[in-house]
Specification:
The complex is a heterodimer of chains A (178) and B (294). Chain A is 70% helix and 0% strand. By secondary structure, chain A is mainly alpha-helical. Chain A has one domain. In chain B, α2 packs across α3. Chain B has a domain of 80 residues: Rod shape-determining protein MreC, domain 2 (Thrombin, subunit H, Beta Barrel), CATH 2.40.10.350. Chain B contains 4 helices and 12 strands; from the N terminus they run αααββββββββββββα. The radius of gyration of chain B is 23 Å and the shape is globular. In chain B, 36% of the residues lie in helices and 26% in strands. The chains are: A mainly alpha (178), B alpha+beta (294). At the A-B interface, α1, α3, α4, α5 and α6 of A face α1, α2 and β1 of B.
Chain lengths: 178, 294
């Protein structure tokens, strides 16, 4: 299935607005309600959707755009997540024959596995930047509770993003060409 | 077949370009200080009012609940008393510091000018949305006099310093963040160390040699070294000392004086005759302090 460029822009704009809403939930609403210890990194989930379910040369630029917006809400910046997103996307490309997100459980499992790849990448780069690999385990561990929650809600979020990007749920993991 | 090849080529080229951009971005990234880009300034100014509105709504709702629906007068009285107690505690710490300082200065027949600050009160409107960074966003920025590297405190103690600032908002790198290193002294024994953020809203006191006289319950205050934090601000309390490791230094856990879970308002301290934001002092890093201790 192919997508027109105008439709792509609309879908991307909706995704950006969706990300802003989710980032505000994470950065303001949840901490205000007392949820302060762990963050739900929704940008990771949206980028995982693009990386796993989209088959297009433009996906790296979409990842970059989403990370630019994410950098407004985090001092992490855009570059770290962009690199992690690219690595996840390339991994998904190599594994596309075995990735079948046909059930909610498979979606959760796949998302959890790719989140581990993502957070390993981010943690390694942060440890390299701060020249302190003693913190590797500590940083990686801080991701785990939030990532499990994200995996649990990933089927719902992937369904919503599927509607935004018009990816038919029965079309398998590599749904849309642009 | 040709179409597939063309598509693959485009994919590879896009991956390489974006990958190179990302690597360049990472190489330029600093986690202890940042200048706001035009993009960041514009988007922050558009989005953050929503955060501010939500943060204010929450505060209004919880105030309504606490103050009017549950225990009207007791709650208010309790809040006032708690504030008075913490202010008095803070005053006692400050007075004690002044007394000790005076003694030392008398002995040296010298004196130093205390750094004077302007104070800007700000409300916390959000937290960093990434797990690994402990940063808060305040609803005051350049327009209110806030500057990069300005220390941020509450009446309970040290919060952190301003990491980046836009016209109306500022991001503060808290002492819970692993990139923020605070030069501290143990109030009782005057031992120097570095406080660094770790996970679970706790900190670690580093570079304390095994033979140093530190105990559980010791209070930590800022050492005033490094040009960011004024001297004598409460930082936290030692809650655990691990002597089982085999290193030269102790592994010490610190609980911050500030309850970051309930952080709502803070004070940004701006030195009166401060230098411009382009001429900021880089925070004291751990290796430099270790060097100094040697």
């Amino acid at each position: 299935m192919r997508m027109r460029f105008s439709q792509l822009l609309i879908s991307f704009a909706i995704t950006l607005a969706f990300l802003v809403g989710l980032e505000i939930v994470t950065a303001t609403i949840l901490p205000a309600l007392g949820w302060n210890e762990y963050r739900l990194t929704f940008n990771v989930l949206i980028i995982l959707f693009l990386a796993i379910r989209m088959d297009s040369p433009i996906v790296p630029w979409l990842i970059l755009g989403l990370q630019m917006l994410h950098s407004i809400f985090s001092i992490e910046g855009w570059a770290l997540g962009t690199l992690a997103g690219l690595i996840v996307m390339m991994s998904a490309n190599y594994l596309k024959e075995v990735l079948h997100l046909t059930t909610a459980f498979m979606t959760m499992l796949t998302v959890q596995l790719f989140q581990i790849v993502w957070f390993m990448t981010v943690t390694i780069v942060i440890c390299l930047k701060i020249s302190d690999f003693d913190k590797f385990g500590m940083i990686l561990w801080s991701f785990i509770p939030g990532s499990i929650l994200l995996s649990l809600i990933s089927p719902v979020l992937f369904w919503l993003l599927g509607l935004i990007w018009r990816v038919p749920s029965e079309s398998g993991p590599r749904g849309v060409e642009i | 077949m040709k179409l597939i090849n063309e598509s693959s080529k485009t994919k590879i080229v896009n991956n390489i370009i974006v990958g190179m951009l990302a690597i360049y971005g990472i190489s330029q990234k600093r986690f202890d200080l940042s200048e706001s880009t035009l993009f960041h300034q514009l988007v922050t100014e558009v989005i953050s009012p929503m955060q501010e509105g939500l943060a204010s709504s929450k505060k209004s709702l919880s105030s309504l609940w606490e103050n009017y629906l549950v225990i009207v007068n007791t709650s208010k009285e309790n809040t006032v008393l708690k504030k008075q107690i913490s202010r008095l505690e803070s005053d006692i710490t400050t007075m004690e510091e002044v007394r000790k300082e005076n003694l030392r200065l008398k002995r040296l027949l010298n004196y130093s000018d205390e750094m004077s600050h302007e104070r800007v009160m700000a409300q916390v409107v959000g937290w960093d949305s990434a797990n690994e960074f402990k940063v808060i966003r305040l609803n005051k920025g350049k327009n209110h006099g806030v500057k990069v590297m300005a220390p941020v405190i509450t009446d309970h103690g040290l919060v952190g310093y301003v990491y980046r600032v836009t016209d109306n908002y500022a991001d503060v790198l808290t002492i819970l963040d692993q990139n923020n290193r605070v030069d501290v002294i143990v109030e009782r024994s005057r031992t120097h160390g570095i406080v660094e953020g770790v996970i679970n809203f706790k900190c670690a006191l580093k570079y304390i040699m095994r033979n140093e006289p530190v105990e559980v319950g010791d209070k930590l205050i800022t050492a005033g070294v490094g040009g960011i934090y004024p001297k004598g601000v409460k930082v936290g309390m030692i809650t655990n000392i691990d002597k089982e490791n085999f290193g030269m230094t102790l592994s010490i856990e610190v609980v911050p004086s500030v309850d970051f879970d309930k952080l709502e308002e803070v004070l940004v301290l701006i030195p009166v005759d401060t230098a411009s934001t382009t001429n900021v002092v880089i925070p004291a890093t751990a290796p430099a302090n270790v060097e100094a201790k040697k």
